[in-house]
Design brief:
The chain is mainly alpha-helical and 461 residues long. It has 25 helices and six strands. Helix 5 crosses helix 7, helix 5 runs parallel beside helix 8 and helix 5 runs parallel beside helix 20.
C-alpha cells in the first residue's frame, strides 16, 4: 500500500503516541488516580491490596499497576515510562488486528495492512490509545479471544483454541474485570450464526467449560489470596460495588440508553462518514462472509449491551474498534489511497486537538503539577482537601508518602487545622467551607481552586 508496511505503520503510530504524551500532562481524574495507585503499590510493596490516597481501592483489577511497577523495577519511578504502557498495548492491538485479518482472509494479501490502517486511523482509538487507562489491554484480550473462537469455527480440533480463549478471559479480567464477558460472550453464543463448521453442541460446551476453567484459574491466582487477606469492606467493593452498581446505576457518570448510539459518528470517525463503511455492513456483504458476520456480532452486541449499562463511557467501546477495522479491511485493501487518507484525517484531528489545547492553555488547567507547586511548601502529612471529592490528583506528582486528609465537614476541617497548624488546605473556591479568601488560586479541572494556610481553615463553617 503506497510504500507503507505494517512495521512502518506501527512506527508512525508510536511516534504519534509519544508526541501526545509529550504535549499532554497526566489528566485528572483518571490518569492521575491510576499513577497514584501504582505509586502507592510501589511504596507498600503489596501487589494484592490496592490503595488510593493510602485507603483501600478495589475499583479496578491490578494488571495495569503490576505492569507499571514492573517497568519501574527497570527504569526507576518514571511518569513517562509508566505512560508508555497504554500505547504499547495500542500498538499490539493494531498488530493483532492485522494478524486476525490474515486469518480471516488469507487469500487477500492487502487485508492485514488495511485492517491495521483502519484501526490506527480512528481518532478515538488514538486518543484512548495514548492514555494511561485499561482499554487497550482489554482490546488486545478481546482480539485474542476472537481469534481463538475463529479457529474453532474453522474446524481446528483439540482444546488449544479454547485454552487461548480462556487465557483471553483471564487476561481481560485482570485488565478491567468481568466486563470482558460483554465483549467475548456474545460471539461465542452466536457461534452457529457465523461459523460454517458444525461443531457438535457437546464439543462447544466442553470447550467453553475448559475456557472458563482456564480463565477462572488465572483470575484465582490473584483473587483468592487478595480476598483471604482483605477487609470485609474491601471484599464487598471488589465483588459487588464496581460490577453490579455500575450496571444498575448510581455511579458518577450515569448516561441515558441512547448515549453511545448518539456518539457513534464520533467513535467511528473518520470511517462513519465514508461510503465503504456503509457498503461493508450491507446484507449482500455479510451473507457471503463469515468473518464479517462475526465482526458485526462482536461490535453490535457490545453496543447494545453497554447501552443498557447505566454508568457507560465512550471508551467502553474501544475493544470493538478492531471489529470495525476488520469489516473495513476488504474494501480498503482495494482502495489504498482512501485507507491512507483516513489515517491522515484521523491523525490530523488528534494532532489539532493536542496543539489547540496546548496553545490556549487548556492542558495547563488540567495539569496537576501546577497545583503541586502551590502545595509544595507543606510538610509531608500536612495537606487537606475541602469542598470536593479527592481522587489522589497530586499523590503521584508530589510523590506523597502520607495521605491527603479529607475532612468530611467544617468541624472536622477545623479539628484538622488545629492538629496541623503548618498545613495547607486546597479545593474549589466556590464549594469551600473556609470563609477567608485563598492565599493563592489557579484554574484546575474546570474550577477555580484555592490554597489556604491551616490557620484560615479555623474560620470554616
Amino acid at each position: 500500500m503506497i510504500r507503507l508496511t505494517l512495521p512502518r505503520l506501527l512506527g508512525l503510530m508510536a511516534a504519534l503516541f509519544v508526541g501526545c504524551l509529550i504535549i499532554r500532562p497526566l489528566l485528572p481524574v483518571d490518569e492521575t488516580r491510576y499513577l497514584a495507585v501504582a505509586w502507592e503499590m510501589h511504596l507498600s510493596g503489596d501487589p494484592l491490596h490496592l490503595t488510593r490516597n493510602f485507603a483501600p481501592y478495589a475499583h479496578k483489577p491490578p494488571l495495569l499497576f503490576w505492569l507499571i511497577n514492573l517497568v519501574w523495577l527497570v527504569t526507576g519511578v518514571s511518569e513517562l515510562f509508566a505512560r508508555l504502557i497504554g500505547p504499547a498495548f495500542a500498538l499490539a492491538s493494531i498488530w493483532a488486528t492485522a494478524r486476525l485479518a490474515r486469518q480471516f482472509w488469507p487469500e487477500v494479501p492487502g487485508a492485514p495492512l488495511a485492517a491495521g490502517l483502519a484501526l490506527a486511523a480512528m481518532t478515538v482509538f488514538q486518543l484512548y490509545g495514548s492514555a494511561t487507562m485499561f482499554d487497550t489491554m482489554l482490546t488486545l484480550a478481546t482480539i485474542i479471544g476472537i481469534g481463538a473462537l475463529w479457529r474453532v469455527g474453522e474446524g481446528q480440533a483439540g482444546l488449544g483454541p479454547w485454552v487461548v480463549f480462556g487465557a483471553a478471559l483471564g487476561f481481560g479480567t485482570l485488565a478491567k474485570g468481568p466486563v470482558i464477558l460483554l465483549h467475548l460472550l456474545p460471539p461465542l453464543l452466536a457461534f452457529r450464526v457465523w461459523a460454517d463448521e458444525r461443531v457438535p453442541v457437546r464439543i462447544l460446551l466442553k470447550g467453553a467449560g475448559v475456557a472458563l476453567a482456564v480463565g477462572l484459574a488465572i483470575v484465582a491466582l490473584w483473587l483468592i489470596p487478595t480476598l483471604l487477606t482483605a477487609t470485609p469492606e474491601f471484599r464487598h467493593e471488589l465483588l459487588w460495588s464496581q460490577s453490579v452498581e455500575r450496571v444498575a446505576g448510581g455511579m458518577a457518570h450515569d448516561r441515558p440508553f441512547w448515549f453511545l448510539i448518539g456518539l457513534l459518528p464520533v467513535i467511528l470517525f473518520p470511517w462513519f462518514f465514508t461510503p465503504p463503511f456503509w457498503r461493508s455492513i450491507a446484507p449482500s456483504r455479510l451473507n457471503g462472509d463469515n468473518a464479517a458476520r462475526l465482526c458485526l456480532i462482536w461490535a453490535l452486541s457490545a453496543l447494545i449491551l453497554f447501552s443498557f449499562v447505566a454508568s457507560k463511557q465512550p471508551h467502553y467501546l474501544v475493544p470493538e474498534l478492531p471489529a470495525i477495522a476488520l469489516i473495513l479491511a476488504l474494501p480498503l485493501a482495494t482502495r489504498p489511497r482512501l485507507a491512507l487518507g483516513g489515517l491522515g484525517v484521523g491523525s490530523a484531528v488528534t494532532i489539532v486537538i493536542h496543539v489547540v489545547l496546548m496553545q490556549n492553555g487548556g492542558f495547563a488547567d488540567w495539569n496537576s503539577r501546577r497545583l503541586a507547586i502551590l502545595l509544595s511548601p507543606a510538610a509531608e502529612g500536612d495537606l487537606a482537601v475541602a469542598g470536593t471529592r479527592y481522587n489522589a490528583e497530586v499523590n503521584f506528582t508530589m510523590r506523597l508518602t502520607d495521605p491527603v486528609a479529607e475532612p468530611q465537614d467544617a468541624a472536622a476541617l477545623v479539628a484538622w487545622a488545629v492538629a496541623h497548624p503548618n498545613g495547607l488546605v486546597f479545593g474549589p473556591v466556590e464549594a469551600s467551607p473556609i470563609r477567608k479568601a485563598p492565599a493563592s488560586t489557579l484554574r484546575f479541572v474546570g474550577e477555580d481552586y484555592g490554597v489556604w494556610p491551616a490557620a484560615d481553615a479555623l474560620t470554616a463553617e
